[in-house]
Amino acid sequence: MSAWRTSTRSAGEMNCVELRSTAEGFQIRDSKLEERSPVLNMTDADLISLLHAAKA
C-alpha cells in the first residue's frame, strides 16, 4: 500500500480527499478526519467513474 496523497491543488489545506493505491485498486478518505476517516475501497474502474462524475 502506498502513502496517502492529496491533490497539488489543495495547497496544503486539510479540506480535501486523500488517495492511495493498493494491490486491488485505490482507497479514498477525508483529509480532515485523517485516521478517523472512513476509507472507501475502489477498483480502477470505480475511481475513473468518480473522477468523470466530479468533472461533470
Question: Could you give the topology of this structure?
Answer:
Layout: E1 5-6, E2 17-21, E3 26-30, E4 40-42, H1 44-55
Offer a few descriptive terms.
single chain; 56 residues; alpha+beta; 4-stranded antiparallel β-sheet; 27% strand
Overall description:
Strands 1-2-3-4 form a four-stranded antiparallel beta sheet. Helix content is 21%, strand content 27%. It has one helix at residues 44-55, and strands at 5-6, 17-21, 26-30, 40-42. By secondary structure, the protein is an alpha+beta fold. It has one domain. The longest helix is centred in the C-terminal third of the chain and has 12 residues, at 44-55.
The SS-based structural class is: alpha+beta
**Whole-Å distance between the termini?**
30 Å
Number of spatially distinct domains: 1
Order of helices and strands: EEEEH
Strand residues, percent: 25-35%
Mean pLDDT across all residues, rounded?
88
Q: Enumerate the strands of the largest sheet in spatial order, edge to edge or round the barrel.
A: 1-2-3-4
Described by strand count, sense and barrel closure, the largest sheet is: 4 strands, antiparallel
> If you compute it from the alpha carbons, what radius of gyration comes out, rounded to the nearest whole angstrom?
11 Å
The outline comes out as globular
